Amino acid sequence: MRLVIAECTVDYDGRLTAHLPRAVRLLMVKADGCVAVHADGGAYKPLNWMNAPNVFTDHGDHWTVVSPKGEELKITLHEVLSDNSHELGVDPGLQKDGVEAHLQELLALDTEHIADGMKLIRREYPTEIGPVDLLCRDADGTTVAIEIKRRGEIDGVEQLTRYLDFLNRVPDLAPVRGMFVAQEIKPQAKTLASDRSIDTLEVDYDILRGIERPQQKLF
Amino acid sequence: MKFRCERDVLVEALGTASRAVSGRGGLPGLSGVRAELVGDQLSLTGSDLDLTINVTVTVSGESDGVAVIPARLASDIVRALEPGAVSLAAEADELNISAGRSDFSIRLIAGDEFPQIAGLPEESVSLASEMLAEALKQVIPAASSDDSRPILTGVLFAAEAGGLRLVATDSYRLSMRDVPGASILDEGQSVLIPSRALNELNRILGGGDEVQLRLGEREASFEVGPVRLITRLIEGEFPNYRGLIPDEHPNVLTVERSELLDALRRVKLLAREATPVRLEMSDAGVELVAVTQDVGTAREAVEGTYEGSPLTVAFNPQYLLEGAEVTSSEQITLSTIDELKPALVRMAGVSEFLYLLMPVRVS
């Protein structure tokens, strides 16, 4: 990731033409080739950008970034105030938002909310392919692997299926059944889970947090 | 493609098609309106993949062709022109718009970036526009705007006793309207149509006496005069609404609709920051009360007849207002069981419409 703070002008010539007059801006050149021009405002959106793939050429006093369609971004550097490069490595991706982590914490504290007689064995139970959110034992003594999401979609069911495959190879735990828990579960995810004998459960985050809504709901 | 037409005709057609144009980026083609000229018929189509609006207008055509034009820019330019005739000519990747002494050339969007519009069955059923407009007006406000629960953002169209039933709910209230005799679905069939598309449909329903409805597996189309609206259907199971409607309500308040609405609008001024409005019901009628801490109190009595035990029940004033507003009778009834169970707003003597509303829990 190259971060340059410079007084610059920017000219874009493609579907339309655009010009950014001379000003101090942040220029980002990502390892994947994407180039973005940011001002000190406007939230997360760049003023101008060129996605990868493209051809980036550093001419010293100016850069050119040309897309395969012939669109050209020309950045003229009048004064470079800062020029830093950092190796960020491979990004692990967005894994869990605050609500999801909190749901896991709340359900671990109150496993009876999931099902009567459900007891926690361990949170973040490790497997060779990553930790399963909750490992529990149900009222019948069967091990239950629980995957928790804020929004339950097909990929979450796939993830739980992979965990179950590994956990069922552990003699002390097998047989392990799966349970997919989310605030809302998509119909396709429910169908897939049912097809794989995985139970699904939709939970109310507010009720788990002990928040009583004065405005009641019909369902 | 080359044609001439009146500015106002083009402004309206572009405006209609553009209502389906995506404002959220995504595919470049989605920011455009596809214009196709065959003879003197100009067809304009806007789409955001979920909703597509097509409008056909008669122009003075010179040469047939197809072009995808930037929707917003073209609309702004045409709207800004002097009234009168306007000429449009698309050639290569440019669109020329001229009128009087004004002349604009703008870059077109590549035609292959515009989405393919799904085909729908030829078979159609027709409905009276006015009747559908009234029914939609009554149910759409109860649909949810929260995209995290997509099923609740739709309106259920279901076959019911040889007619059509429309149902919408955001889980706090539920609106249901029966349209007897409108047998557009097979018995037992139901579809879930996005309320956003139905809002757009309501805007165009005034353009014709009848609306032609076509149902595909995943899409529905509504045709009113020269405008055709195609929407994706929402997949999933609508909540079992029948089980939510109580069989009996021991308390029934009957009031003049306009008196209740006026009083509610006044009292609502003091129901701030999610403060509910309390309805104190007794033989004398109902008293509406709103108390907002550190702001003040509002109280207004509305005459009416009340059958049942004296009861105080509180509602979100906006929800109650919206339920009463979509009624059309002189008198309306509010049926209650107790202060926590769902209440029912109905038009007195009319069984085709009901609005179910959950109370707010107050100490």
Overall spatial form of chain A: elongated
Helix content of chain B: 10-25%
Strand content of chain A is: 35-45%
Q: For the terminal residues of chain A, how far apart are their CA atoms?
A: 49 Å
Rg value of chain A: 25 Å
Radius of gyration of chain B, Cα only, in angstroms? 25 Å
Counting DSSP H or I runs of 4 or more residues, the number of helices of chain B is: 6
Largest interface (CB < 8 Å): A-B, 15 and 26 residues
Helical residue percent band of chain A? 10-25%
Distance N to C terminus of chain B: 69 Å
As laid out across the biggest beta sheet of chain A, the strand order is 4-3-2-1-7-6-5
Structural class call of chain B reads alpha+beta
What does the largest sheet of chain B look like? 12 strands, antiparallel
Taking pLDDT < 50 over at least 5 consecutive residues as the criterion, the unreliable ranges of chain B are none
Number of strands of chain A: 12
Topology:
The complex is a heterodimer of chains A (219) and B (363).
Chain A: E1 2-13, E2 17-29, E3 35-38, E4 48-50, E5 55-58, E6 62-66, E7 72-85, H1 98-109, E8 119-125, E9 132-137, E10 143-152, H2 154-167, E11 176-185, H3 187-195, E12 199-202, H4 205-208
Parallel strand pairs in A: 10-11, 11-12
Antiparallel strand pairs in A: 1-2, 1-7, 2-3, 3-4, 5-6, 6-7, 8-9, 9-10
Helix pairs in contact in A: 2-3
Chain B: E1 2-6, H1 7-18, E2 32-38, E3 41-47, E4 51-58, E5 60-63, E6 65-70, H2 71-80, E7 85-91, E8 94-99, E9 102-107, E10 125-128, H3 129-139, E11 154-160, E12 163-169, E13 173-179, E14 190-194, H4 195-204, E15 210-215, E16 219-224, E17 227-232, E18 251-256, H5 257-267, E19 277-282, E20 285-292, E21 296-307, E22 311-315, H6 317-325, E23 331-336, E24 343-347, E25 353-357
Antiparallel strand pairs in B: 1-5, 1-7, 2-3, 2-6, 3-4, 4-17, 7-8, 8-9, 10-15, 11-12, 11-14, 12-13, 13-25, 15-16, 16-17, 18-21, 18-23, 19-20, 19-22, 20-21, 23-24, 24-25
Helix pairs in contact in B: 1-2, 3-4, 5-6
